[in-house]
Write a sequence for this structure.
């Protein structure tokens, strides 16, 4: 199961209570106040980890509660501080603070509803389902995103963190301070205070964790264009491959290795269709994963297997990328003509070059490993020449 967006409830630990106590010893029957201070509550800390690739752990544990501090004790003994709760999340995780009492735009899970654990509506950790019909979360930019037009207006709240580096930490909720014991309130006129401070509550709130995969190259194309086949040909990734659309339901990452030990990460984004920028066909669920890519590969089915013209596919894909995020078109991109082993592909390639001028095209056949070595060199040039 792949989870790339999840709503969680986080609460830091409460500070321990200060103690009301007095020193009573054999030869000091009326000693002064010696109540200890309460311990500090534990923090809730997010830590980026490159060994994780999705938010599945938070899906099953959406309540992040840190340990409370211990209460103060007599004989001037302070309570122990609460243990911090360290929550590991994948690199590329964005953290959004949700307004109090709001309904999150939701998190997504890729498996069918009947295979998921049942969660009450409105609780933390409740993901929004995405399906082939295109139910998905609202995409956001790095400031504060709202849907527009006929999609209504929904806000994900305030962006508070973007965890991109392995080991990077962010304190999501800070623990409350411990209360002072009665020894701290003794004065010359009040020598036996019979009160102490209670501990302060820790910070709490609801947050939306959103994963944007960090890859150097993103594969973009229509369903059934051969993206998964290409990924398996250039790396050791083994995504599911089948001759029907939307075989890939969540992004796949492959590592491309070179003879000089250089490595590139390539992300296979599930197929996009017309209207993806309006969240049609799982659009927003996948488009956000290419926002961090340094170079894009537009993969076209040059054989027109599904009855579409490759030049129309190319124009539509550029249109969807531009409507979703105009900055995507400013990045280096490589146009690749796949399925060149089909007899009609050569003729379509000639027409494509006539209709789409001044656009270099790299012909390959991923299924038969033709042109893949040249493709690997071209994507490396795109990334290093950025």
């Amino acid at each position: 199961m792949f989870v790339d967006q999840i709503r969680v409830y986080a609460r830091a630990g409460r500070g321990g209570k200060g103690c009301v106590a007095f020193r009573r010893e054999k030869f000091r029957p009326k000693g002064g106040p010696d109540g200890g201070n309460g311990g500090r509550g534990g923090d809730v800390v997010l830590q980026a980890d490159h060994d994780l690739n999705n938010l599945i752990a938070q899906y099953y544990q959406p309540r992040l509660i840190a340990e409370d501090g211990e209460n103060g004790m007599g004989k001037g003994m302070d309570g122990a501080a609460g243990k911090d709760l360290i929550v590991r999340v994948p690199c590329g995780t964005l953290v959004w603070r949700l307004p109090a009492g709001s309904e999150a735009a939701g998190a997504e899970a890729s498996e069918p509803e009947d295979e998921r654990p049942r969660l009450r509506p409105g609780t933390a950790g409740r993901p929004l389902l995405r399906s082939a019909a295109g139910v998905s979360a609202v995409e956001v930019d790095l400031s504060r995103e709202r849907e527009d037009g006929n999609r209504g207006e929904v806000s994900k709240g305030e962006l508070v963190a973007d965890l991109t580096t392995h080991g990077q930490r962010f304190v999501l909720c800070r623990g409350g301070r411990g209360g002072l014991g009665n020894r701290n309130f003794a004065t010359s006129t009040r020598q036996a205070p019979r009160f102490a401070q209670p501990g302060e509550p820790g910070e709490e709130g609801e947050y939306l964790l959103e994963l944007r995969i960090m890859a150097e190259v993103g594969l973009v194309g229509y369903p059934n264009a051969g993206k998964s086949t290409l990924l398996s040909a250039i790396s050791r990734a083994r995504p599911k491959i089948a001759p029907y659309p939307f075989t890939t339901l969540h992004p796949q990452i492959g590592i491309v290795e070179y003879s000089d030990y250089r490595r590139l990460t390539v992300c296979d984004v599930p197929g996009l269709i017309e209207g993806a920028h309006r969240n049609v066909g799982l659009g927003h669920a996948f488009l956000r994963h290419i926002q961090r890519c340094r170079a894009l590969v537009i993969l076209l089915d040059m054989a027109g297997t599904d009855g579409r013209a490759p030049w129309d596919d190319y124009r539509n894909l550029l249109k969807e990328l531009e409507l979703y995020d105009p900055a995507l078109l400013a990045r280096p991109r490589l146009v690749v003509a796949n399925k060149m082993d089909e007899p009609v592909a050569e003729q379509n390639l000639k027409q494509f070059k006539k209709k789409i001028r001044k656009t270099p095209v790299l012909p390959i056949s991923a299924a038969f490993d033709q042109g893949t070595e040249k493709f690997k060199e071209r994507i490396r040039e795109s990334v290093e020449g950025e």
